[in-house]
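Newbie here. two chains, one complex. Structure please?
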Amino acid sequence: MPGWVKALGIAILLLVAIVVLVMLLSGGQHGPGMHG
Amino acid sequence: MTMSPRVRKAMLAVHIAASVGWLGAIAAYIALNVPIVAGADEQLVRAAHLMMRPVAWYAVVPLAVTSLVTGIVQSLGTPWGLFRHYWVLISLVMTVFATVILLLHMGDVDALAARAADPSSDVGRLNGDLFHSIGGLVVLLVPLVLNLYKPRGLTRYGWRKQQEQRAASR
């Protein structure tokens, strides 16, 4: 697997982890139906 | 099946137009969120939420589907293939992910517009929709960069196919 694929994978995983962390810290106000 | 150069170019033109248009439509959607975040008056906040619905349904969704379909056709109709190169495979996964999330989120867009249209509803609960639109923009920048630079790297399947083609041409 090329190095750029590994780097991109790590960057995406970090980004997803940050988003999940922010959502958890902000009370999880996210997901389908939250505006309903 | 490989497309003729003329068909390939026409398909590429449609794919680029749809993909760039998709990003532009998201930019317009984000722009509708600016007055909401900036704390504009009630009428403007309601109007912005109402306008998000047609922008999403008549610009973002059709352009997303067109971009996805033409991208798949483009890959299958050229020697690039759909699963042979990492940059094509990652672009496909990101585009499918963005399209699925978009379609799942459309119910929320409809709900927000319905709430904004109801004059008795609490305007304080109309908070815009920045999270998904900025997220979508960030996700789509990955295929954009990959499609421009086309970084090297064959998948296992691509490597196997290449070996088969080399063996067949000997």
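Moderator note: The helical segments of chain A are 3-25. The interface with chain B takes residues 1-2, 4-5, 8, 15, 19, 30, 32-36 of chain A (CB under 8 Å). Thread marked as resolved.
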